[in-house]
Amino acid sequence: MSSNAQSGGVPVLVLREGSNRSRGRDAQHGNITAAKVIAESVRSALGPKGMDKMLVDSFGDVTITSDGRTILDEMDVQHPAAKMLVEVAKAQDNEAGDGTTSAVIIAGELLNKAEELIDKSIHPTIIIDGYKKAAEKALETLEKIAIPVDLKTHEYLKKAAMTSMASKLVAEYKEYLADIAVKAMLEVAEKDGNTYKVDVDDVKVEKKNGESIRDTSLIKGIVLDKEVVQSGMPKRIEKAKIALLDTSLEIEKTEFDAKINIESPDQIGAFLKQEENMLKGMADKIVGAGANVVICQKGIDEMVQHFLARKGIIAIRRAKKSDMEKLAKATGAKIITKLDDIKSSDLGYAALVEERKIGDDKMTFIEGCKHPRAVTILIRGGTQRMTAEAERSIHDALCVIRDIVEEPKVVAGGSAPELEMASVLKKYAETLPGREQLAVKAFAEALEAIAITLSENAGLDPIDILSELRSRHEKGETWAGIEVLEGKVQDMTKVGVFEPITVKKQIIKSATEAASMILKIDDVIAAGKMKAPPMPPGGAPGGGYPEMGDY
Ligand SMILES: Nc1ncnc2c1ncn2[C@@H]1O[C@H](COP(=O)(O)OP(=O)(O)O)[C@@H](O)[C@H]1O
Ligand SMILES: [Mg+2]
After folding, report:
1. Catalytic residues, which ones?
2. Using 50, 70 and 90 to split pLDDT, how confident is the model at 2?
3. Rounded to an integer, what distance in angstroms lies between the CA atom of residue 519 and that of residue 32?
4. How far is the CA of 169 from the centre of ligand 2 (A)?
5. Average pLDDT for residues 342-359, to the nearest whole number?
6. For 404-430, what is each residue's pLDDT tens digit?
7. Cβ partners under 8 Å of residue 307, min gap 6
8. Residue with the nearest Cα to atom 23 of ligand 1?
9. pTM to 2 decimals?
10. How far is the CA of 199 from the centre of ligand 1 (A)?
């Protein structure tokens, strides 16, 4: 059957030439296969024994990572269903900040199992319904087994931060970095009734090559990757009164676009004098407001720099917008967009502003801010690749800490919760009618993919491990999981591998959602590319669709 109907021998063209359409079983198969390929591509990166990936972009830049989201971000994925799986990684990262690899692996496995069911003539709608029920039951199980965390002790925060970094290039330094991450997040956490609120963005992360990861430090304040704009300015100011400007301290070129007739040397002199006066006027306004530090998002004219330097004022130019916002929050300064409006009440405060040499560069430290809830983690490391991966790892650690601070519950890792959910689901399946039962069982088996993958990556026999795990969960050992470093099934709470419940819940939600969305599709219509030149008359061979499959 063609998607373009024949009407009395005249073809009715519905789709543009070159469009591609696949339907029903073919569409499903194509989508599932594409999604499985994506899941396959991140499998070997899961867990502490997972491998890293070396990704080379079209400019030849190299990234080395084992971070699921980063791997998928750097891959130039074309297939629409594969793209949906990449979206899963993004959703997981945005919602929970960790667990991206797991979410993609489980989504891929849910689709793999669904395909087996479809082959047994079970309709996708039944599978989707079964998966939905299974997901609800799984989430309920997580809530039931979760360990409540008392935030007064930081033990679980630190352990969860360490778990999130155990699978990264920086694993060797996980304890040191976890300490920094916990301190940073607690510094910016705000009490909100009985709970706490904390924003990962309140922790600024800067990186500078040189030294080693162990020289990474936590600064109570804001560090700008900027140097003081002119060498004549002071390098250090105590009791800083800070002006934040989102306006340039230059004379806009456009003001001179008008035609100026200069008839004598006097006029040139007067003209230059006038320009100088305007620039001095800018500096005077800042001086008048009482600022001794100026941080400007735009440029600063050399003349203005000179006037500011003479008054002993530190100036920084071309600060990032995101930094300006952080500075405003930390120092209590108002960002000024029109210099004429500047008032002393707009200025922010910090106990110290100082330029320091870090590696080969200079950075500016703004410490002892008015609102102490501003910290910076300054990452050091031998190479740019190392600091970049450290940054991604610290991001995961910060997210994991946030997750627990906001929902103080953890589960142990090493596939223990996945196996526990699977075990509960298998029993639950028995209570359901035939076809749904199969879908719920399939969901349980998909969760076991985490145990299989962790064992495979650790060079263990997944069949042995899985059967041991199943029987120990059957016997009520909720936290039996694989300790991959020793290669044994153990009580993961004793090993101290903990993860936020938020991450595990989000994995279930994102994976189920993506799998269902892909299963619901039974028709893929891809528009043909627009052809640049119009078809010559009679050029199209009978309005055919040469690339179409036969339906
Ligand atoms: N020492 C350990 N032994 C076994 N599993 C571990 C250990 N440390 C972490 N894991 C597990 O590794 C998985 C996370 O691996 P990771 O590569 O970070 O993937 P994701 O992107 O899903 O977070 C989790 O299931 C976690 O429980
Ligand atoms: Mg992780």
Report:
1. 67, 100-101, 396
2. very low
3. 8
4. 12
5. 94
6. 999 999 999 999 999 999 999 999 999
7. 279, 280, 283, 284
8. 99
9. 0.83
10. 24
